[in-house]
Amino acid sequence: MNVTKAKPNKVVRRRSGRPTKEQAGQITDHIVVVATRLFSETSFEATTVDLIAAKAGISKQTFYARFDSKEALFAAVIRKRMNDLFLASPGQPDRAGPIEPTLVRIGVELSKRALSPAAIAIDRLISSEAYQFRQLALAYQESATHARGLIAGIFSNAMREGQITTADSRFLAQQFLFSVVDGPTRALILTGKTAKPEQELREQVRAAVDLFLDGCRPSDRSA
Description:
InterPro entries: Homeodomain-like_sf, HTH-type_TetR-like_transc_reg, HTH_TetR, Tet_transcr_reg_TetR-rel_C_sf, TetR_C_Proteobacteria. By secondary structure, this protein is an all-alpha fold.
């Protein structure tokens, strides 16, 4: 009896091809997240491209297809930190009514973001590497443009309503961020008292807002 051997099925290998635009974006985001953790845990110098690739589970070819250098990746990490802190709106400002509750709400939200563990880690990293990346330190300061614009609009509206005296609204916004958010949160970071209960943080912000507005409100000419 003739036995006809069945021919094995031919395995057709599917070409992997290039990742989709969405997949490519996910890979890039993943690299940034991994690098953020590595930079924060060690330092810029100690974090090598080989280490980043190994921890991210990618090849060096994949890394260099997205970033020209470790410095370029570091810049992407800092930009993401800036966007997380400043570009996400802390809520729509109240266009009517007293200015104080709106400023307190924004001050609390921005302070909470600045005191998050991820934000603190990146802030320390920027401070330690600023001598190498002065342009990044400058960009970090300039990254508050979005928040300043939002707050400047609130001050402009309050001026029109006569709640505060007429002044440069953008200058007021810059001073507000420094005196109510940036200065106090950096003091807490330096002293290690970042795990502040929200109610206590709110009271601190409210006191700072009151002091700030005392210098902006029209003087009582009848006194």
